[in-house]
Structures are given as C-alpha cells and as structure tokens.
Design brief:
The complex is a heterodimer of chains A (276) and B (438).
Chain A lengths: L1 H20 L5 E5 L4 H14 L5 E6 L1 H10 L4 E4 L5 H11 L4 E9 L1 E4 L7 E3 H8 L17 E5 L4 H11 L8 E3 L2 H10 L3 E5 L8 E2 L1 E3 L11 H5 L6 E8 L5 H11 L1 H10 L6
Parallel strand pairs in A: 1-2, 1-3, 6-11, 7-8, 7-9
Antiparallel strand pairs in A: 3-12, 4-12, 5-9, 5-10
Helix pairs in contact in A: 2-10, 3-4
Chain B lengths: L1 H10 L4 H58 L2 E14 L1 H7 L3 E14 L5 E10 L2 E12 L6 E9 L3 H4 L12 H6 L4 E10 L5 E8 L8 H8 L7 E12 L4 E16 L4 E3 L5 E3 L5 E17 L3 E15 L9 H6 L2 E17 L3 E11 L20 E11 L4 E12 L13 E9 L1
Parallel strand pairs in B: 10-14
Antiparallel strand pairs in B: 1-2, 1-18, 2-3, 3-4, 4-5, 5-6, 6-7, 7-8, 8-9, 9-12, 10-11, 12-13, 13-14, 14-15, 15-16, 16-17, 17-18
Classes of the chains: A alpha/beta (276), B alpha+beta (438).
Chain lengths: 276, 438
C-alpha cells in the first residue's frame, strides 16, 4: 500500500513537471562578447517583424554562455570558439544530449596595432612569441626601440581561448593586460603607440589591422570578405550558436532567420562575414 | 592714494617721453607681478601634480601587487557539495536499524584544485562524514609535454570505470549500482594512471596501476588503505570510443574494460571454488586471481529533449583471501578457505529530461556474487554479499537553479531466495534528498 502511494505521488509530480517543461515564453541568448553586438542587432531586427517573440541578449564571454547552456539558464549560447570536450561531457551529464552546434558567421581574429606603429606585418610564430613574451621589443620586429605592451581578453572569452589554442599554443605572458571586451582592447591599443591587441574583426576603429602571414615566406593578409572566403587569412574562425536540443517552435524560426539572407546581411553590416 | 596721486600730478608736470617711460615701467611691473603670480600658481599646480603622481605611482604598485596575488589565487579552484536527505525504510530494514525513518547527511565534500601552470593540477578532496573525515582524492595530474591528449596522474584517485568516475553530485540516482560498490569499494585506489583523450580521434584510453586493496573510506579501513598489502600491483584498463550522428541527434560512447590483479593468501593454501569444490594453491603466500572483463555503453539521444540509455557489465573472478592466522592447522585452513567467486553484474539506466529542470530516471541493476551456485549461502564476496540481487530504482530530479537539486527516489531490491533467505526481504527505501553544490 505504502509502495503504491509513493509511486502514485511520483507519477503525479512527473505529469505536473512535464506540463510546464515544454512552455517557452521568450528566447534567452547569452555568451560571446565578440558576438554580442551582432546578437543584439539580430534580436532587434527580428523582434520588429515578430513582436510576439521576446529575445533577451547578454554577453559575458563564450565560457559564461557555455556554462549557462549546461546549467539550463540560457536557450541559446553564442560562442566564438568550439565547445571543449570537457564542456560537451558536462552537457551530456546534465542534459543527456550532445548539444547542437550551429555555425552562424565567420570572423577573422584581428591583430590590432596602433596607427603610428611602424610594424605592419606579423607571422603566426611572431604573434605567439609576442604573447608569450619571447619577443619583448618592437625593434626585434623592425619597429622602434620600445617595449611591446600586451592587451588581451579575460579567460572566459572565446577569443582568448581560440587564440591560445590555435596561435599562441602556450601560456600567455603574465604581462598581458586582461580587458573585458574587444572594444576595450581596441581602445587601449588606440591610446598606446606600443600596444598590441586582438579581437573580432568588427570592432576595429581608430587602429590598424596587422597583416598576418602563416610564415616568413608567405603573403600577409588582413581579414576581409575576400581573404576569409578564400581561406587566405590565417586566423579565420566560425562564430557559433549552441543549443541543448534541436531547435523547435519559435527558436527554430529565429535560427532559420539568422541563417537566411536577412540574418546574414546583418552579419556583413556589423563587420563579420557570412558563414557560407 | 588716488587723491595724493592727483595732487602729485598737478604739482609735477611730466613730459611725454617720461610719461611713456613711466607707462612702460608700469606695464612691465604689472606683467612681472602677473607673471610671478602665474609662476606661483604653476609651481603650486606642479607640486599638486607631483604629489598626485606620487600617489598614483604608489597606487600602481599596490594594484600590481594585488593583481599578482589575485593571479595566484585564481589558480586555486574550490568546489563542493552537501547532500542532506530523509529516508524511509521497509519493515525488515526497520527491524535491523531500530527505526523506519531518519534524516541523514549522506555526503559533504570540498574539492581543492590548484593549477600552477597550464596542464598541471593538484587535487585534494576530503570527505566530511558524520564523526569522520577521510581523504577521497589526493593526486597530481600532469599533461605530458609534446604528447597532445596524454596525461599522467599519481596519488589516490577514482578507479577508471564509468559509474565510478561519474560524480556523486551529478549521478541521477542516489547510489552507485550494487556490483560497482562490491568490485570497487570506496571508488578510489592509490596508484598511477596514464590517460589519453583524443582530439582528432574520439577515443579515450585509461591504464591504471594500483595497490589493489583499497577497501572503502572508513576510519577502520584507513590503515589498510594507506599502503599495499602484497608485492603485486593490480592493473585496470579502459577504452571508450565515441560515435556521433549529428543529423539524428545521437551520440554513442562504448568500449571494453579489464581488471587484472590478485590477492595474496598469506596463511592458507586452500580455497573454495564457486561451485563449492575445495582446491589448493602450491603453497601459502601465493596469489589468488582477481580478474574480470567488462564493457560499457552510453547512448545520448535528442529525442523530445534529452534522453540517455546507459549500461555496463562485468564478469569474472573475484577472490577473498582467508583470514586464518599463520599458526592455523590443516583442519583450520580447510575449514576457512580463501574464496574464488565467479561473479556477474550489470546495470541499465533510462534517463529522460523534461526541459532544463526536470529529469526522470529508472535503473535496473543485477549482481550475483557467485554465479555457480544458486543458493550460495556458504560463499561470500569481499563485501559480505552471498546472494544475488535485482534492484529497481525510480527517481525524479528537479533542478531549482545552478546550485540546488531536489531528488526523490524509490528503491526496490529483490534478493535471491535460498535457505538463509526464504523470502524477499522488505527492504525497499524511499529517499528525499536536497543537494547544494557550489
């Protein structure tokens, strides 16, 4: 008798919870600071023609967004790097899915230099050596005799992780000043003749892009629609949206719109590049 | 003064050149006084700026020190969880315990991870049980330089098994399955482990060499657990391959695992086989086999939200050394032989997520510590199990937020019937648990 009562209670609770589980009043988007302006523009434009949908966008960094996705506190995570295997394992444990990865735009991770800097071109190895403090003075790169001042992002940033994994491939130097967004990095380099920074291509105003080359014998390229489409620019990456489950309903409609011509036009307007 | 100047002016008549000289002197004087006062202001401003510059430089130094300290503190991560629960028991458990319900703090743990550099971690995790503090984890983990994906671990850590490694704070049911608890008491072992996690190939490989005698995190076991009890080391190996079918939203992880080890029979050469026959080793101080093979599979499917099916099995020989004294007679040795148990165990989970907050779980777990004899009342394994069990667990999890989870579970074990256990015991258990995690 006691067993039947307990089982009945558990069944009722299950039905009650299920009834609330599938309702979705709004879409929350959280994550990449690289993508936050893009995500906000998407949301504003979409809500204009779809007033029944509310889309809430916040930044915080790709790491913050992925944690929120795992914990169930966001519907869509924006990320400027792929999810790590440890994060996928946590998502599997928590949600029993692999997650859904949707590339939604392309970006060239740009190396920012002050307009007055004589150096215009860097190889991938030089960028790594600069950010690991193996190269410390601009004169080693053909510039003036001045100490290189390093600006970068916090470790919750997808751009920080992407550059670390793909270019730097070692611990960042302890002298890198961590700043809370690409705009802050650009601002710092703009004010510092000897500064160097990195970030998404859409943010560079008042600084110049360094031409990046694979090695000393290659041609250097700046990120542009052409160099990214042709995979010439060496530090090209996808920007992603991650979901716990395959999108349905209003979320699917929103994502389809982002991947369609209107959403991709916004990508170009903001300064990134279409994902196809 | 003006009056006097007017009188003077009337009394002294100046010619134009002298007037101009006087005017020039006057202007020069005014400019000098103005310039002097401006210089005073500038000097005073300079002083103020220099003072503030000094303060800013001092602040800069303090910020640099604080940033350096913060960078060091950021290398330490602290996490933990507490599980507090209320349990209600069936009639037979009530008779054993003396009560039919109780509040209980099942687990209280804090984990410290120190990462001094990329690819290096030191982990320390004490477990705070009521009246007892024991060490759960104490190990160092180092990524092997230039071998991407490979890492070396040394110390006290989890044995390489899926359900063992799956954290108690994440697990969907209250406790691990019966056969896992029997084979791997306390989950941990002291040894060294080599691990490979592929990035380009979706493969995970683990090889652990260990003492092989860890017997649970109790104060009584602590002395035995601290060092090995014989010269042979046990070895565990595990391989997991991941398959993804993104279009269908399906992921599958599967692979085999192996245990090779032995238990030293110090004082008794006689052992009883699973079928009850008595056999003997060549002499005392010989090793009894402790070997088994197993396999695991986990299937994750994005079907109406997250769904998972997980299963694992193990089958082989688990031995229990005789506890007779060194001075035992032949008759005493034969009366209390070591034991060779052919065992089999497996579990099957079905887990269904309903949105981000709710989860329903069913687990079936089977363990037979001696497969050769149906009524194995004479044969016990190292945990004192002598009959087989089939256990059903039904559970519901509710995630209030990132940190709080509420769980309800009903456990229904069904024991093997034999002469010592003529009926299925009334040992069902209902548990309500609140977990706080940080």
């Amino acid at each position: 008798m006691k067993k039947n009562k307990i089982l009945t209670i558990m069944l009722i609770l299950a039905v009650m919870a299920s009834a609330t589980a599938f309702s979705q009043a709004k879409i929350t988007v959280k994550g990449s600071d690289t993508m936050v302006i893009l995500a906000q523009r998407w949301a504003e434009l979409y809500m204009k023609s779809n007033p029944q949908t509310t889309i809430q966008v916040t930044g915080g960094g790709s790491g913050v967004g992925i944690t929120a996705l795992i914990n169930g506190t966001t519907d869509i995570c924006d990320a400027s790097r792929p999810m790590k295997q440890t994060e996928i394992e946590k998502l599997k444990s928590r949600s029993n899915t692999l997650g859904v990865e949707i590339p939604c735009a392309k970006d060239g991770v740009t190396i920012f230099l002050n307009d007055a800097n004589k150096v215009n071109e860097l190889t991938l190895k030089q960028i790594s050596d600069i950010y690991t403090a193996k190269i410390r003075n601009w004169k080693e790169l053909g510039g003036v005799d001045a100490e290189i001042r390093l600006y970068g992002r916090e470790n919750s940033s997808g751009t920080y992780t992407y550059l670390h994994d793909e270019v730097v491939k070692a611990d960042y130097a302890s002298t890198v000043q961590s700043l809370p967004g690409t705009a802050a990095v650009v601002n710092a380099v703009k004010k510092d003749v000897n500064g160097i920074g990195y970030g998404g291509a859409a943010y560079a105003v008042g600084v110049k892009y360094a031409k990046v080359k694979k090695d000393a014998n290659s041609t250097g390229y700046v990120p542009s629609a052409e160099t990214i489409a042709k995979s010439q620019y060496p530090i090209t990456r996808y920007l992603y949206m991650y979901l716990r489950n395959r999108p349905t309903g209003e979320t699917k409609k929103y994502i389809d719109w982002i991947l369609g011509p209107e959403g991709q036009r916004v990508v170009t307007e903001v300064g990134y590049f279409p994902y196809k | 003064m003006i009056h006097d100047f007017c009188i003077m002016k009337n009394q002294v008549k100046l010619n134009p050149i002298e007037m101009k000289k006087l005017l020039a002197i006057g202007i020069f004087t005014v400019i000098s006084i103005y310039g002097y006062s401006q210089k005073q202001v500038i000097d005073s401003l300079k002083d103020v700026i220099e003072r503030h510059e000094g303060k800013l430089n001092a602040l800069d130094d303090r910020v640099l020190v604080n940033e350096t300290d913060l960078a060091k503190l950021n290398k330490i991560k602290v996490s933990g969880y507490i599980q507090a629960q209320w349990e209600m028991y069936g009639a037979d458990l009530e008779k054993t315990n003396g009560y039919d319900n109780t509040f209980y703090v099942r687990r209280a743990r804090i984990k410290f991870i120190y990462e001094p550099a990329s690819g290096v971690a030191f982990v320390l995790q004490p477990d705070f049980s009521t009246g007892n503090i024991v060490l759960k984890d104490a190990y160092a983990q180092i990524n092997i330089p230039k071998l991407q994906g490979w890492s070396l671990w040394a110390g006290q850590m989890n044995r390489p098994d899926y359900e063992v490694e799956y954290s108690s704070s994440q697990r969907e049911v209250m406790e691990r399955s019966r056969f896992i608890k029997a084979l791997y008491p306390g989950e941990r072992e002291i040894g060294a482990k080599l691990e490979y996690i592929g990035t380009k190939i979706p493969l995970k490989f683990q090889l652990m060499v260990m003492n092989g005698n860890y017997n649970g995190p109790t104060a009584q076991a602590a002395v035995q657990n601290a060092k090995d009890v014989d010269s042979k080391k046990d070895v565990m190996a595990r391989l997991v391959y991941s398959i993804k079918i993104p279009g269908a939203g399906i992921g599958i992880d599967l692979g085999p695992n192996f245990y090779f080890g032995g238990n030293l029979s110090k004082n008794n050469k006689y052992y009883k086989n699973s079928d009850g026959t008595l056999d003997s080793l060549k002499s005392v101080w010989k090793y009894l086999d402790k070997n088994w093979v197993g396999g695991e599979i986990q299937i994750f499917a994005d079907v109406l939200g997250g769904t998972a099916i997980k299963a694992e099995f193990a089958s082989g020989i688990n031995s229990v050394p005789s506890a007779v004294a060194a001075t035992a007679t032949m008759a005493q040795m034969k009366a209390s032989p070591s034991l060779y148990n052919n065992f089999t165990g497996y579990y099957l989970y079905f887990i269904k997520n309903f949105g981000p907050k709710n989860q329903f779980v069913v687990r079936y777990d089977y363990y037979d510590p001696n497969t050769k004899i149906p009524n194995s009342s004479f044969n016990v394994d190292a945990k004192g199990n002598n009959i087989s069990y089939k256990t059903w667990d039904l559970a519901w999890q509710y995630y209030l937020n990132d940190n709080i989870r509420i769980s309800l579970q009903y456990e229904m074990p069904k024991n093997e019937i034999n002469a010592s256990n003529p009926t299925d015991k009334k040992d069902n258990m209902f548990t309500v648990r609140v977990q706080a995690k940080f």
